[in-house]
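Hi R.,

As promised, here are both runs. First protein below:
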Amino acid sequence: MSARPGKDEYYLNIAREVCRRGTCLRRQYGAVIVNDDQIVSTGYAGAPRGVANCVDLGRCLREELAIPAGQRYELCRSVHAEMNAVIHASRAQTLGATLYLAGIEVASGLPTAHPEPCLLCRRVIINAGIARVVVQPRGREIVSLNPEDWMNEENEAARQGLAGPALVRVQLGREPGGEA
């Protein structure tokens, strides 16, 4: 009999299952929002309701144009998993909650190497009052990210006259907010 998974592993496994509903041809992401040990919302990356998605169309414009990950989101048909999870919950449910995020590279079937939220999703997570984001980079241990760190990065960028943080990709090797 295998060992009972810890809470973070348990909810990440649920996020991995949620990501299987994704309709992106590049990466499938799933998000689970948990508050007081209760799932309050889930979301996966996919086109808005009633809008054709890339799986059904059989093409991805960003892939065809060789646009790197993290750039030109306006050309993407999908609403990100984190955004969908927040959309489906009330602010009262997300205040102080934990968001679990998991992703799969469609081409290889492997977990994503860097499953951290993009800049826009970070801002949504901050506004939702989510206190912690949990991810597990491919081949690595589970990491807990602190949205307060993102607020500090945003404020530092503002002090420098920038629209947002220059470094969008989180350094997952560090211990954000003292948690890891």
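And here is the second one, sequence first, then its structure tokens:
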Amino acid sequence: MVSKPTHHEPDPLQAELSQRKEATEDLPDATGTWVVDTNVILVANGQHDGVDAASVDTCAKWLQALMQTGRLALDDRHEIVGEYLHKTHASDGKGVGDAFLRWVLHNQDNPARIDLVSIAADPLRGYAAFPDDPRLAHFDASDRKFIAVARAHPECPPIWQATDSKWLDWAPALADHGVQVRFLCSAVLEAFHRHKFGF
């Protein structure tokens, strides 16, 4: 007769599933479609100077939540992905931002998770979908693709913004054109704005 052990070793798979469930329960609700500015990825990776640990954690959690339940809007010219790739390490990076980029690359052709939006070029505004508004005349050229994707998408999804304080000034004009900006790190962003512009 074989005696049965009197104790049980912990099941590693069950432990991992439990950890994942706990992590998911701590995440914000990212249900829906979003446009994600590159600086959110950089903050989540800890690659942005002057950002506190709370902001890193916030951006990391939003990206994790998007990978769990959300959808991402990108341009079909691959300009946004190209910027992501230029500033992160998709192949061997250890940050949450790097993991997010790997998720993006894996799901690029998955219409259930990523919407590829057509954005036409414009010789004056950069993109035809970028608003023709004098209040936005000095909007950074490299960031106009995010606005164009949001406006060209049928849902006009909100844009996640982490650290570019100039967007605080542009947000009211963007809202007039149907573009909502979700500032993930408001306290740090406002501090950056005061340091840069004095108010």
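A quick note on the second one: DSSP finds eight helices and seven strands in the chain. Let me know what you think.

Best,
J.
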